[in-house]
# Entry
Amino acid sequence: MRLPRTAPARLGAIAGAAALVAVPLMSGPAQAAATTPKVTQDRLSPTAMAAGTTAKATLTVHSGSCFTARTLGVGVRDSAGDNLDFPGSASDVRICPSGLSLTTGSRTLPSGTYTEFGFWQDSAGAWHNLASQSLKVSATTGAGTPAPTSTPTPTSTPTSTPTPAPTSSGSPVPGQSLVWSDEFSNPINWGSTWVGDTTTAFQYGNHNPNDNKLDWLDENAVNVAGGVATFTASPSSHTLENGKQAWNTGLLTTEGSSQGFQVKTGDYAETRVQLPSGTGAWPALWTWKNGNGEIDTFEYHPDNPNLLELTNHVNAAHDYYTNAAAVAPGKWVTIGTYYGANSVDWYVNGTKVYSDGTGVGANWSAYLILSLSVSAGEYHPAPTGTAPISFAADYVRVYR
# Structure
């Protein structure tokens, strides 16, 4: 994605707290199994929540010897055994005897009693559940009113990671119905729905240093759990052409997939995302085709914590939408774009916030891209350390 000619003034950099923090533990060392590392769950919270109020989970674990787990997260099961996991699982994390703490994304749960536990995935892809405990959700809400953009209340859909079912009335544009979606309730359908290791929007296919990016595309940087796709960027072993160290990160594009889905004039595309806090994070939903076709439903940089960049690169127009109540690191926000022939319209949490009056023309079409880029420092600060950077998405939907 290209930057507008004028980048917004920095509003004050936020050094977002790293999702993963090493912590010293008093527990004694555990003996590693011959084939599977021994992981011990030391602490897990919360043990109580209020219905309708968002909460995050914190998991602390340690192992008998250092190893890298493919995934680490917090699972929740209801009385029927349905998965209602906390979003924001971590990928490729180093677990050692000194211990590791993970803080997940936020979610809400209906009142009831649930089983809560940590889980991890080994290098061979096998899943391991840790010690379980009871999580009680009271019917009485807490002191605060839940934000309207909190993680959706789970449904009883009998899938492994249930998310809200798509509806035909979700578009703010009258008369439209759902034609395509990914609810991230199942593992990424690589090759058929999405491609994650290359895009023609990147100069070298899997990396693009000349667009102020440290990205090196890696399918393993996108993982699905609890009805949420989590993109995790981390330092790479690759070096870019400009001499800078690359970061392995995730991108989903319909370009090159067997479905080859494209949005076109008159469509409305929408996503619901949790904005990141890590310095250098650069998430976006955008389109691309034949060297342009780019409409940015949004771009976000945590150093401008309350601002979304909304840009039409087809017929030049852009807006910097600012709303501290809806846009901030860690918040869930719904952002959509109507690709009108004469005006592209942007919506935030269902309300139209900008119409560009230029549009995309009558015969426009392009592929969708949802990505987490990493800034190289020219317009927005680059990462200041090596801590992973995460970004989460609940769904991508298209109506026409």
In short: The CA atoms of residues 235 and 247 lie 4 Å apart.
